[in-house]
Write a structure and sequence with these properties.
Structural class: alpha/beta
Number of strands: 14
Number of helices: 8
Radius of gyration: 23 Å
Distance between the termini: 68 Å
Order of helices and strands: EEEEEEEHEEHEHEHEHEEHHH
Strand order of the largest sheet: 11-10-9-12-14-13
Largest sheet: 6 strands, mixed
Helix content: 10-25%
Length: 334
């Protein structure tokens, strides 16, 4: 008797990887669906399955910026739903993750990643409305140092600077060697300098809500993402970007020269996962003085003969930066 062959696996239930699968990058998340762009510029609306393979365990399965392999679904070409299945997600070079709830973490919640595979972190702040917040900027810079990302600080709304104070606000970061751009999205001042810094890179835009982040993205990409006004009661911005999205940076001729990942407004940027003993290495100004501390494991908080504290007292380290360090140290995991 001829042995019957096993029935083929149904594609809708299994996401086995095949050599014929296409490569692409997730450029947008729409609920349960993912918009994947191929290197040729074609886009597919894909979904994941329980059997989708990933090289990123204990984390959000698929996010904007992920490089994936996917299989076009020839049997279901309904773009309104999906026309592809993601079969494999490559290991991420870097991630931007939202602050997580400590109580939920103890019950095993996965890390909530917002975006991945980023070359540089563009930290957008504003001169006013909302006011400049150096401690939040220091959080972002510490994260960038930890992840090996290049931080680029953008101070927007300098058109509101009638007294010429903007340069003074960013002076500590300039002296530390971080690149800083002063611009006005509303007046389109400094946009070309920013476009140049984005060329050839995948950059993530993050910052406090209301600083003009989405307005900048719209002007650089030709998009029409919704922007919002500041809350009259709190002076804080409305969260106008509900999902992360990757958009091409366009040259004046309309050619894609880089990519921006625009993220939801983040009011609090947590550094969970970075231990206290690691935090001291993320403030670059400490590195010059730390070898002179009495203890090799000095935390630069309350130890005797701390060279970093002495440098602060001598005015060789900006007090505002040291205060940010103490705040982050108190929050960090022991």
């Amino acid at each position: 008797m001829q042995k019957k062959s096993a029935p083929p696996l149904r594609r809708k239930n299994f996401a086995t990887v095949s050599e014929s699968d296409l490569y692409g990058t997730i450029c947008e998340v729409r609920g349960a669906y993912y918009i994947v762009r191929t290197p040729e510029g074609d886009t597919y609306t894909c979904k994941t399955l329980r059997t989708t393979l990933t090289e990123n365990p204990n984390s959000t399965l698929a996010v904007v910026g992920d490089r994936v392999r996917f299989r076009p679904d020839e049997e279901r070409n309904d773009v309104a739903l999906h026309n592809g299945v993601i079969t494999f997600i490559e290991k991420r070079r870097s991630v931007l993750a939202r602050s997580r709830d400590r109580r939920r973490n103890r019950s095993g919640e996965l890390e909530h990643v917002i975006a991945s595979n980023i070359d540089q972190l563009v930290i957008v702040s504003s001169f006013d409305k909302p006011p400049f917040r150096p401690k939040l900027i220091d959080r972002y810079i510490a994260f960038a140092e930890f992840e090996g990302l290049v931080p680029l600080l953008v101070l927007n709304k300098v058109d509101l600077d009638t007294a010429g104070e903007a340069q003074t606000l960013v002076q500590p970061y300039c002296q530390l060697g971080y690149e800083v751009l002063l611009l006005s999205a509303r007046c389109e001042k400094g946009l070309e300098a920013l476009r140049e810094k984005l060329t050839g890179k995948t950059s993530v835009f993050s910052g406090h809500s209301g600083v003009g982040k989405t307005t900048l993205v719209n002007k650089l990409t030709g998009s029409n993402l919704a922007t919002g006004e500041l809350s009259g009661k709190s002076g804080k911005g409305a969260h106008t970007t509900s999902n992360a999205i990757m958009l091409p940076v366009l040259s004046p001729e309309g050619k894609a020269v880089g990519y921006i990942i625009d993220t939801p407004g983040i009011r609090e940027f947590g550094l969970e996962g970075i231990a206290r003993e690691e935090l001291r290495h993320l403030f670059v100004e400490f590195r010059k003085f730390a070898p002179e501390c009495a203890f090799a494991s000095c935390t630069h908080t309350n130890e005797p003969n701390c060279a970093v504290v002495a440098a602060v007292e001598r005015g060789e380290i900006w007090p505002s930066r040291y205060e940010s360090y103490l705040t982050l140290f108190a929050e960090a995991s022991a």
